[in-house]
């Protein structure tokens, strides 16, 4: 799925959305991302628990329907475990940070306590990306920016519950983000360790991967203008 088609679909949804009918709300959100990677074979990948922190913009489209924007700094990646296959990658970890913007359709029910469902696309712009590999019981590290795609396009599905706290609304939210694009472009990556430096060649097909993550988030929103 091409990134430009996803961006076009997001823009079209926003253009065709009904006009905002409720007072917009803004706020902040933070929590943890249980991140891992879909790697298509070797190596075995385990989750890493990392940070997610950002803002919230709630645009009401009616009594129950709205659009939620959650631009956030989020950390992704996964931990590679050793396998019995001598040709597999050595154990280590891949860690990346992104500025990610989910555009989510929000369906709420209830009056005071408001459970809700979320779904929509997310587009992430990479800020940093590093790899660590354990070679002969020594750690080697390198920058993956030249070998991976700077964009990460995914779909978000989630649910939460909101509770009024005076003029503010508190919420607890659980989301799953499924990466859609192969982020591996391939190429040589320079790694450095105790014994010096060397190159590791990554292949676009053999080493392809997509990101995944389960986010547990809490936050507060306030009516825009303080009313």
What are the salient characteristics of this protein?
single chain; 227 residues; mainly beta; Porin; 13-stranded antiparallel beta sheet; 1 helix
Secondary-structure map:
Layout: H1 3-16, E1 25-38, E2 44-46, E3 48-60, E4 65-69, E5 72-81, E6 92-108, E7 114-135, E8 138-143, E9 151-165, E10 168-179, E11 187-193, E12 196-202, E13 210-223
Antiparallel strand pairs: 1-3, 1-13, 2-5, 3-4, 3-5, 4-6, 5-6, 6-7, 7-8, 7-9, 8-11, 9-10, 10-13, 11-12
Kindly describe this structure:
Helix content is 6%, strand content 64%. Strands 1, 2, 3, 4, 5, 6, 7, 8, 9, 10, 11, 12 and 13 form a 13-stranded antiparallel sheet that branches. It has a single domain, classed as Porin, CATH 2.40.160. It is mainly beta and 227 residues long. A hairpin with a 2-residue loop joins strand 11 and strand 12. It has 1 helix and 13 strands, in the order H-E-E-E-E-E-E-E-E-E-E-E-E-E.
Order of helices and strands: HEEEEEEEEEEEEE
Distance between the termini: 43 Å
Report the sheet with the most strands, covering strand number, pairing sense and barrel closure. Answer: 13 strands, antiparallel
Classified by CATH, the class is Mainly Beta
Task: Give a short synopsis of this structure.
This protein has 227 residues and is mainly β. It has one helix at residues 3-16; strands at 25-38, 44-46, 48-60, 65-69, 72-81, 92-108, 114-135, 138-143, 151-165, 168-179, 187-193, 196-202, 210-223.
